[in-house]
Amino acid sequence: MSNRGGKRENAGRPAGQGKYGESTVTMRIPQSQTATIKSFLEAWQRKRANAAGENAITEIEVDEFFTPAISEQPTLLPLFSTKVAAGFPSPADDHVEKRLDISEFMIDHAASTFFVTIKGDSMIDVGLLPGDKVVVDRSKTPGIGDIVLAVVDREFTIKILDHGANKMPRLMPANSTGTYRPIYIRPDTQFEIFGVVIGSFRRFK
């Protein structure tokens, strides 16, 4: 009886010695998504390798992406002219300043606008909290001081656009705890401003 064939004990690469430093599994993915998955894994490796570096993004700071669904029949809700200090303003018609359509108020250009869910607390000082939906408009021209959705080395982040003494762009966090550092954009950095944040909203219940 031949001893050839079959799996030999301790044969193959030891677990944890591969490209990702841990065991891997085989899985099937759509062929059209191969490049996307590879790009994600490359970005994940860079972030892990550079975790202590100056330009490290300590977390992926955006989560879900949504496109606005604009109804042909706008939802017009009352906008009261009285200031609310204690109690609720009178629902009488003479206190209603006008009718407000939420979509019209939040969106300037529907074709170039989308929503993103905030993940992380690097922008809490400007009122952007984890779970908030931010309104991003790609048609806006970004300027210094704007809050932008940027892609840095294939990772999305939301920061304040700024520049340093050398006029090179940098992305500033808004968290006074000092946990997050500015992201400096160097000549070899893959960098794109994906859109300007023009508003945000959240639900409490």
The CATH superfamily name of one domain is Umud Fragment, subunit A
What percent of residues are in strands? 25-35%
Are there runs of 5+ residues with pLDDT below 50, and where? 51-59
Q: In the CATH hierarchy, what is the architecture of one domain at level 2?
A: Ribbon
Element-level helix/strand string: HEEEHEEEEEEE
Q: Given the helix and strand composition, which structural class is it?
A: mainly beta
- Largest beta sheet: what is the strand line-up? 1-4-5-10-6-7-8-9
GO molecular function: DNA binding; hydrolase activity
Keywords: Autocatalytic cleavage, DNA damage, DNA repair, Hydrolase, SOS response
GO biological process, one term: SOS response
Pfam families: Peptidase_S24
Keywords:
10% helix, eight-stranded antiparallel β-sheet, two-stranded antiparallel sheet, 205 residues, DNA repair, mainly beta, 10 strands, hydrolase activity, Umud Fragment, subunit A
Question: How would you portray this structure in words?
Answer:
By secondary structure, the chain is mainly beta. It has a domain at 58-70 and 107-201: Umud Fragment, subunit A (Ribbon). The protein is built from 2 helices and 10 strands. The chain has helices spanning 34-49, 102-106; strands at 62-66, 76-80, 96-101, 113-118, 133-137, 147-152, 155-163, 169-172, 183-184, 191-201. Strands 1-4-5-10-6-7-8-9 form an 8-stranded antiparallel sheet, with no helix packed on it. β7 (155-163) and β8 form a beta hairpin. It is globular and about 65 Å long. Residues 51-59 have low confidence and may be disordered.
